[in-house]
Design brief:
single chain; alpha/beta; three-stranded parallel beta sheet; 8 helices; 38% helix; binds adenosine-5'-triphosphate; binds magnesium ion
Length: 187
Amino acid sequence: MGGTFDPIHHGHLVAAAQVAQECRLDEVVFVPTGRPWQKTHAVSSADDRFLMTLLATVSNPRFDVSRVDIDRPGPTYAVDTLTDLQAHYGPECELHFITGADALASLSSWKDHRRIVELARLIGVTRPGHDLVDPGLPGDTITLVEVTAMAISSTECRRRAADGLTLDYLVPAPVAAYIAKNRLYLR
Ligand code: ATP
Ligand code: MG
């Protein structure tokens, strides 16, 4: 599951946990982006986003965090993420790419999207406010999964932090503590 994770929140975690169970995945690897080519807002440092993702996932033995996108120079493209993960986990490993409904809708504009569906099976998850539609890519490789609706976004979390509002119960407690301690998102 790729993302900016700026910050990671319970919408990400609920989606990952429910998809893992429904699709019988051995593990979910969270992959914080390096420089996301589509994002315009100022993104927190890769180290802050990596550490928050680690704090949020460390208690779950089936969750892991990868630095492949953070350590690769230049903008992040999913096709490179999947290529690096396949090389890391080996040919026996079957990759699935978990994407929320909003991101899935734009998938056909992603770099080498045809290669993406060769490298991984796509899993599209529901997200409040977005229609979950099959992007109609070649091959029969997409699974659509309905997950508990969590109307949380990182954008809203950043805005709340900037306004001095609590992030309690939107993000895991250690993530909220990390944001407060490091004064992230303050104007
Ligand atoms: P931002 O507001 O900064 O775009 P975000 O909340 O959309 O942040 P991302 O890091 O952009 O989070 O999302 C990573 C992945 O998680 C994407 O595939 C996105 O669709 C999915 N996702 C994010 N929030 C939810 C949610 N509440 N429910 C389901 N999927 C989600
Ligand atoms: Mg987003």
